[in-house]
Amino acid sequence: MLVRVMQMRKIKTKGFEKMEKREQMNIVVVGHVDHGKSTVIGRLLADTGSLPEGKLEQVKAMCSRNARPFEYAFLLDALKDEQAQGITIDTARCFFKTAKRDYIIIDAPGHVEFLKNMVTGAARAEAALLVIDAKEGIQENSRRHGYLVSMLGISQVVVLVNKMDLVDWDSKYYQSIVSEYSQFLVKLGVEPAEFIPVSAREGENIANHSKRASWYAGPNVLQVIDGFRKGDIPEKKPLRFPVQDVYKFTELGDDRRIIAGTVESGTVSVGDEIVFLPSGKKSEIKTVEMFNSPQRTKAGPGNAIGFTLRDELYIKRGELMCKPQEESSVGKRFRANIFWMGRSPLIKNKKYKLKIAASRTSLRLVDVVSCIDATDLNTITGKQQLDRHDVAECVLETTRPIAFDKVEDIECTARFVIVDGYDIAGGGIITEALKSDTSITTEHVVRRENHWDSGLVKLSERENVFGHKAKFILLSGDSSCITVAKKLERKLFDAGFNAHYLSIENLEEGMDSDVLDSLDKRDEMVRRLGELARILTGSGQIFITASSNLDRYDIEILKDLNKPNEIMTINIGNDDKFMINYRESYQDNDFIVSDIYSKLVEESIIPDYSI
Ligand code: GTP
Ligand code: MG
User: Fold this and answer.
1) What would the pLDDT profile of 330-352 be if each residue is shown by its tens digit?
2) CB neighbour class for 417 (10 Å; exposed up to 12, middle 13-18, buried from 19)
3) Which residues surround ligand 2, an ion (CB under 5 A)?
4) Residues near ligand 1 with C-beta < 6 Å?
5) Which of ligand 1's atoms lies nearest the C-alpha of 198?
């Protein structure tokens, strides 16, 4: 008996696995009002035998009872009523099957919902059916929808020239739409797979080959969509592993550091070389760790998993683990399509928070390239801010570099969310990495220096009186850097120089509590430190500070913010991003202090009294 139950279960599980394995594709049907979108969908459901049994007959019977002509569009309403009662399925979606795969139709009932879903990734269409009425021809919405499809990056498009029965299947109507609409689409960079003459109402060229259009030898609608490609399966794509957390085990001699997260795409095995971005730190996978699971050597998409590395690296949460030959982009500026749903507009010169994969950073709007209002799909020109329900192509910039991909390459690292205060106010997709000679920081510094109101005493005059040059000395590396910094201040001061040490921790004072508790804290500390360095070096001092935890981007920002004054960066440990490096093996702080002192002499920052 027991055996029989087990066998049954097995079979059941097998069946379930089979169902799960069928490929799915999301398609959207768009077009001008009344051009036949719902009829096309109704036909697709009916002609592929995807309707619940008896549904077609039931709706037809209902129509004849009410003396109304039957419409395929009614099928959708009937299904939606049913779904609304069952409250199981999103009412904007319905399904049909072909031998090849299952299709989920996103019937875009309200543009706002549809666009929001598309841009934020709740429902992403992989292909679009654009419906145009053969008799009415190309209308305003036909153009707007074409634009939308291109903006959302849907590259698989088929145009249905519908209601051919109304023009007696005259190819002239079809041809004129083909030539006019393809010219329009070319400008948008959209190349439709096919223009198909159809009659949705009569079921011609949807699932069959219509005898009415003897002049058309191309494929029908089902053939075209079955021919659309799915993107690469996640296993085949480059490795993307956003680091969610780093756990350090210290008990009983266990000194493992586990990098934890979920593999979003690609695969990775023990022994693979890996690189963390944006830091650029490299190592090799030593072990694959999975809670409560047998030892394994490989991980793939969807695995929530941990890794230990061959080298002991300081990796921060939010970094992206990739393989060296398949690195993501790293940068601060990018082009993106955004859907804005915030109560307050997205404006320039305001700081927002960007969440992308596991990383969080601050973000600013640099430029609005083009914008459409999602409620009526009107293009709004000359806009420099985004209001609620605007969909726009924008240029954005983060404070520190982030690792990301273009949406057409890898979606999980191209999608982001914008947080305004505590609310998710927008979502978007990155379409292009942008290079820029300037950054928000350098632009700020140029502006600041242009408006700097100086006193009557020049820095060179101060340097003459003080007997040394002004300099910002920044120490980093292991924790001894703080001791070294303090000793350096003492030594310089005792020698009669105007040296001043400041602990970075002091800068936390007076910070708003919401900044202190947030991920902005670090950015704000660096910003304060840089501005302060500019002021103190401007007053002719040797300004010294130390932190054990600065990355190359912090240093770049500090260099910029201290401009036009000079900086010297020193690292205790070996790291080529610093001007001067002391290997940890020296250990002797006093030696390092004396050595820095003589470097200052060498560079004529301070005079050499020993001569
Ligand atoms: P909205 O959702 O209101 O934008 O309309 P729609 O694009 O979904 O159009 P729908 O499918 O509701 O069709 C509009 C009208 O056109 C209906 O009366 C349909 O019967 C009719 N229609 C649709 N396809 C055809 C066709 O191929 N031939 C003819 N003659 N009429 C059609
Ligand atoms: Mg409709």
Assistant:
1) 999 999 988 888 899 999 989 89
2) middle
3) 37-38
4) 31, 33-39, 71, 73, 162-163, 165-166, 199-201
5) 27
